[in-house]
Design goal:
This protein is an alpha+beta fold. The protein is 15% helix and 33% strand. It binds manganese (II) ion.
Length: 226
């Protein structure tokens, strides 16, 4: 029997809709700038290929739990995103094969310490402090895939005011292409989540704000910043 020197971490889980089962999370990949209008608002070049960053699995916040306002930032931003849950292993898959890897979909928020991210960008430093912090990935339950990937409305409100309102079909790289691109870089495995990027009109939130977001037909996520 293995003797652990410290208590081993149990895999974080996300509920699965209409199921007793929970989805154990291995890692979280995130796509940067996958909607044209958001890419422009962040100063990106339209010819940029997709790029990825990651968050630790234990950054997830599920079951509608409160989110503590994170330390070391004065500019916390929301980014509403469609999330792909991977249910099968795949490496260097084509877009035609990519959807075979999908377990389901969820709605997630890529919380971002924008001031730290911008400082990292300007210095050529990695993005971890801006993106991969504790409680930075609130997420809905996962809906099992039962047909083509979602294409519908994606939206987020703060204290009832609509802030982001777009359609998933405006993604520059669609679900199959995102999976194919990620699989060029990593062997994808069951338990991986991929945040697929946010549409335009990201913005700041403060302690006490209530954030509610959804991808229609997929799920909704809501939390309070405390
Ligand atoms: Mn994002």
């Amino acid at each position: 029997m293995i003797q652990y020197a410290v208590a081993p971490q149990v895999a974080p889980t996300v509920p699965v809709l209409d199921s007793e089962a929970v989805f154990p999370v291995r890692r979280i990949l995130c796509v940067g700038r996958n909607y044209d209008a958001h890419r422009r608002e962040m100063g990106g070049d339209d010819r940029d290929p997709p790029f990825f960053f990651s968050k630790p699995a234990d950054a997830l916040v599920s079951h509608g739990a409160d989110v503590p306002y994170p330390p070391a930032t004065e500019n916390l931003h929301y980014e509403m995103e469609l999330v792909i849950a991977i249910g099968a292993e795949g490496f260097q898959v084509s877009p035609d094969q990519a959807l075979d890897l999908v377990f389901g979909y969820a709605a997630g928020v890529d919380l971002t310490r924008r001031d730290l991210q911008n400082a990292a960008k300007s210095k050529g430093h990695p993005w971890e402090a801006g993106k991969a912090f504790d409680h930075s990935a609130p997420i809905s339950a996962i809906r099992r895939a039962d047909g083509p990937p979602p294409t519908g409305r994606i939206h987020l409100s703060v204290n009832g005011d609509l802030k982001q309102d777009a359609v998933v079909s405006d993604m520059i790289w669609n679900v199959a292409e995102v999976i194919a691109e990620a699989s060029k870089l990593w062997r994808l495995a069951p338990g991986d989540l991929i945040f697929t990027g946010t549409p335009e009109n990201v913005g700041p939130v403060r302690k006490g704000d209530r954030i509610e977001g959804a991808v229609d037909g997929v799920g909704s996520v809501a939390f309070q910043l405390v």
